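pls ignore typos typing on phone
adenosine monophosphate + seq
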Amino acid sequence: MPIGLADARALLDGYPARPTVAAIGSHSALDIADGAVSEGLPSLVLAQAGREKTYARYFRTVRSPDGRRERGCVDDVWTYPKFADVTAPAEQAKLRAQGALLVPNRAFSSYVPLDAIEAEFRVPIVGSRHLLRIEERSERENYYALLERAKIPFPRALRSPEEIDRLVIVKLPHAQRRLERGFFTASSPEEYRTKSESLAKRGAIDPAELARARIEEYVLGPVFNFNFFCSPLAEPSDRLELLGVDERRESDLDGMVRLPAAQQLALSPSRQIPQYTVVGHGTLTVRESTLEGVFALGEKFVEESRRTAPPGIVGPFCLQTCLDQDGRPSVFDVAARIGGGTNVHLALGHPYGNALWRTPMSTGRRIALEIRRAIEQGRLSEIVT
Ligand code: AMP
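k done
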């Protein structure tokens, strides 16, 4: 049985006045922890054994004798043999006893099975429990279906490699590193065949998965990850905020574009096919005349998310968007949770978030602010799923 809204709200019974903000220890956990302590809430990172040092050592909170935080932002770290162990009934009970509010990041929805998140994980989630699944391209009810219903433009899909008559990107998972991409581009059926054979030989893709791969138009233009926030506590006209924009650094694509053309061509044929492994992020703003269109995308997404899985988006979400030469957007990926690049404004805030809130406003801090306001207004149940 899926955990419904009433079930999630009931989990808050007996929660302390100062709940703990918890996140799985990877992806954007530092932003979440920093935001929590900036708003005076305790932070807890749920780490996998062997991957805890960032939180337990380098960013752990150090307090003065009178209890003030002097350094760091991670108040507590709990480690598990595997991330997915957080769903063990005894661990859930511990989290509830701690008064934990779980903020979902991509590490949570990748490492903890979605079935368990939706039906077994009885810990209140500040976010959108039943929208996390839309990120899985293999699902029928995925983000493309939602974008289509919302009338948000996204890259057109081709039915088969034989139809390739322009630059396309072929999307399938990496054969060995399952959470990474085995993407490649092609401009013709021949190029598709040559490249897919070469990548299969390299072990980067599994030929059996090609039939299920999505082949979509390649949108020529820079990529903007729009980090939005939707507040269920705000008036409808104020509920949508654009906090910041980041861009990814992908290896080895970004390394390749830093080479002069002659050196790119001198790479061995197999190295000429770039990989799309995210290794870092940078920060961006958009041309001001584009902003209203960006907000319109966010509004449509929020509206459709409410129809798809009530109460819809709660808190942060990210629309990964290419803008073409006319500023026209194409959304090619969606995160119905905190985006992967929000550490770009960790602690400092972002020009857009800061301009709105008149103080440094990162995504992590905005989440904690929402929690704090919900507590003050006696409306915590409205922001959990
Ligand atoms: P994704 O896994 O969908 O986030 O995509 C990984 C990377 O592939 C992005 O950061 C872009 O660089 C690129 N990409 C994905 N889809 C498209 C597209 N339709 N057009 C251009 N680039 C794309």
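The chain has a mean pLDDT of 96. The radius of gyration is 21 Å. more later
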